[in-house]
Amino acid sequence: MAGRSSRRTQHVILANGREYDIPVDEDGYVPVSKLLERFESGEGVSDGKTFRDPVKDYDERADVVLPEKLTPRQAAIWWDRPAEYDIEGIDAPGRPKIRKGMKFYGTEAEATRMSVLVDGALNRKEREKLTKSGLSYTARPMHPGTAGWYDGEGVSLSREKGMEVPVVAHESAHAMRARDRSRDNRILLTEAEKIGVEESCTVAESQARSSTPAISGYYLSVPVFDEKTRRWRQPTEAEALRMAKEDHQIFTYGRGKGLKGEDALRSVEENWADSHIARLRYKSRRMAINVLADASPEIKAHANRALAKARGGEPKKRKASTKRSGSKNASTKSGKKAVLGWIRRK
Ligand SMILES: [Zn+2]
After folding, report:
1. Among candidates 139, 162, 157, which has minimal Cα distance to 91?
2. Which CATH architecture has domain 96-182?
């Protein structure tokens, strides 16, 4: 207990003359959290410069890869020049850590955490299917504004912004849309050529699977109907945030509790056309719902009703937002939240 507050350091002098006080635990090894902190800070000499980009460092493989467990003396060369050496799980993927048969890349603690998050988003059958398909999850540094991505091979999660169920659900949904052969509804299957449709349906699935709203940056590309001009326009950040929260309610049937397996898929099938995210206009001139309507008469009929409702449903909400801008507290509060929340999920 006492050891926690009195964390020790060990003084190390390198051959090049530089000196460091490197943290050390009671077991004689450098705490992994401290190695991560050092890595993410961007400190350490690189090409004679003192600034180092953790994302670039991660993507560039060093010849020497050190293990996660290091004594201060062993860690000192990396501590001095992190770009020239890699530590497994920290600035290089290293060997996969296996949790319930699934492959995870990152530190031991991150592997365990990602495994818990996967269980938060998927049921056992879904996890087993993805494991069989060879999907892996990687915790790594990413540029600000990116929470995660699925690149066809595996899911990558930002250490800073990706370690939460809505992000894991989103990237896992991309993977399942491409890999799960038992899916047969167009809304649930990959749309590699139509990225706007793919992201729209993937956000929908992540909303259905999460017990907290998926505050995805894609809501900034969901048009709202402007009563004054009688046209669709880009939403404000407050409107985008409200749409994200309303969609979460829609996809969880008003209960706010995340669904898994068949329940999650049925919710996407039943609710997508009526959601805000169905109107996503991303890398296309057309809304996702209008693109899919062309493919299915059933969706077309639903789309016409849903869009008419979105046009008619706006005035009341606009009134409410005008009122809100008069109340200082409410508008600054929601405005701040929105700015913090907007992250792109690829
Ligand atoms: Zn995505």
Report:
1. 139
2. 2-Layer Sandwich (3.30)
